[in-house]
Design a protein that fits this description.
This protein is α/β, with parallel strands linked by helices and 266 residues long. It is built from eleven helices and nine strands.
Length: 266
C-alpha cells in the first residue's frame, strides 16, 4: 500500500493522471482524455522497449504492467489508465488488488456499441493474439455471441508498424489487405479496434474496407470512465488553464518521443 495516497494534507486535485501502454498506442486514449479533461496534467509512459505485449507470456505482461505502474506511482499520479488492451486483459485485476487506494481504469474492445448499431453484418474484432486468447475477451464474446456474428482477427505485426510511426502507405495497406483476405468486405458491418495502437491506422483501414464499414474503438468510453471516477472522488483539477503532458518511454530515445508527440498532436 502506498502511503502517499493516504496523506490528508496532500492535494489530490493537483496531481497528474498516469497513462501507460506497451508503446505509443495508448496515446489514442490520452487524446480522448485531453478532449474531455483539458485542465488535467498527464504523465504518459510508453514501454516501446518491450513492445508488443500481445505476443508475450502472461507472466511477462503482468511483470511489465507492474513496472509501468510503479513508474507512474513515483510521479505521484492520482489515477492510472491502463491504456493497453493486452495489459488490461492480463493484469488489471491484479493491479487493482495491489494498488487498492488509487483508481485504475482499463480498456476493452468496444463490442457493445458495435452490437447496438449492427445491421446484420459481421463484426470483426482486430486485436493482438494475447487479447483474443484471454478469459476477459472470452467472457465478452460469450455476452454478445447470440446478438451478432463476431469474428476475432488476430493482427500480430500491426503494432510494430505503428511503433515505427508508419500509419499509412502502401506497405501498411498491403498488410491490412492480407489480414482481411479471408473475409468478404461487403459482409462486414463494423470493425472493433481491440488494441489502442490501431486507431492511428483508421484512415488506411477505411481505404482497405471502404467508408461503409464502421470502425469503432474504446478510447472515448475509457476517457469517460476516467472522468466519472475522478469526479466522484472530487479530485478533478480546478485550474482554468490547459494541463501539461509529460511523455516518457522505456526506449529512452528522442526519436520515439518525437513519434509520440506527432501521434498525440495529429
Amino acid at each position: 500500500m502506498h502511503k502517499e495516497y493516504l496523506n490528508a494534507n496532500d492535494s489530490m486535485e493537483d496531481k497528474p493522471i498516469g497513462f501507460f501502454d506497451s508503446g505509443v498506442g495508448g496515446l489514442s486514449v490520452l487524446k480522448e482524455a485531453i478532449k474531455i479533461l483539458p485542465n488535467e496534467d498527464y504523465i504518459y509512459f510508453g514501454d516501446s522497449k518491450n513492445a508488443p505485449y500481445g505476443v508475450k507470456s502472461v507472466a511477462e505482461v503482468k511483470a511489465l504492467s507492474f513496472q509501468a505502474v510503479e513508474f507512474l506511482i513515483k510521479h505521484k499520479v492520482k489515477a492510472i489508465v491502463v491504456a493497453c488492451n493486452t495489459a488490461t486483459s492480463v493484469a488489471i485485476e491484479d493491479l487493482r488488488r495491489h494498488y487498492s487506494n488509487i483508481p485504475i481504469i482499463g480498456i476493452e474492445p468496444a463490442l457493445k456499441p458495435a452490437v447496438e448499431i449492427n445491421d446484420g453484418g459481421k463484426i470483426v474484432i482486430m486485436a493482438t493474439p494475447m487479447t483474443l486468447s484471454e478469459k476477459k475477451f472470452a467472457c465478452l464474446m460469450e455476452k454478445y455471441k447470440y446478438k451478432a456474428e463476431i469474428v476475432p482477427l488476430p493482427c500480430a505485426g500491426l503494432v510494430e508498424y505503428i511503433e515505427k510511426g508508419i500509419v499509412q502507405g502502401e506497405e501498411l495497406n498491403n498488410f491490412l489487405k492480407d489480414k482481411f483476405s479471408h473475409l468478404i468486405y461487403n459482409e462486414i458491418s463494423s470493425v472493433v479496434l481491440g488494441c489502442t495502437h490501431y486507431p492511428f491506422i483508421k484512415e488506411e483501414l477505411n481505404k482497405v474496407l471502404g467508408e461503409k464499414v464502421k470502425v469503432i474503438d474504446g478510447s472515448l468510453g475509457t476517457a469517460a470512465q476516467l472522468k466519472r471516477l475522478i469526479t466522484e472522488k472530487n479530485t478533478r483539477n480546478k485550474k482554468k488553464s490547459m494541463g501539461e503532458v509529460q511523455i516518457f518511454n522505456s526506449l529512452e530515445d528522442e526519436y520515439i518521443i518525437k513519434i509520440s508527440k506527432k501521434l498525440l498532436e495529429g
